[in-house]
Amino acid sequence: xxxxxxxxxxxxxxxxxxxxxxxxxxxxxxxxxxxxxxxxxxxxxxxxxxxxxxxxxxxxxxxxxxxxxxxxxxxxxxxxxxxxxxxxxxxxxxxxxxxxxxxxxxxxxxxxxxxxxxxxxxxxxxxxxxxxxxxxxxxxxxxxxxxxxxxxxxxxxxxxxxxxxxxxxxxxxxxxxxxxxxxxxxxxxxxxxxxxx
Length: 197
Prior knowledge:
By secondary structure, the chain is mostly helical. The chain has 9 helices and 2 strands, in the order αββαααααααα. It has a two-stranded antiparallel ribbon with strand order 1-2. Helix 2 (31-46) crosses helix 6, helix 3 (52-59) packs across helix 5 and helix 7 packs across helix 9 (189-196). The chain is globular. The mean pLDDT is 92.
């Protein structure tokens, strides 16, 4: 599964130590530390055969995200897209630095960075797998909280958000989500099913 288990463990420790510095808390835990662990746990459920580079990319998907707040970019859709693009590169560069510190080779670091940055999403299997896991984690762990933060959203707005998420997912991830393997909040399940039908 991993070429050097000690090096792999050291990389995860570096990622977790970085994310443990997140000042934002979720149920008493640093938010991004919790997110990274949820990503790894979802990968184990969805694609347990995933190789080492993908396992690393999934854990580092949001590494040190709080250092680049949304407010550091202009308001509006263009600002949002620029923020997302900047985050992808920031996460990839941060992961690359930490992987180099524990002795990963340039080829593995490049693969991890490409997956985190979602480069060539529709043709790079690593990028698509990271995207799938992120979407599944959102649906299971964050959709309910997001809904609570936006009680003013009309059903049509919710449907649009869910359709966009669904379009990003591979057929395998969609099947996983609808096959009873994903714990979608009961109150939101009808909306999800309506959006994806």
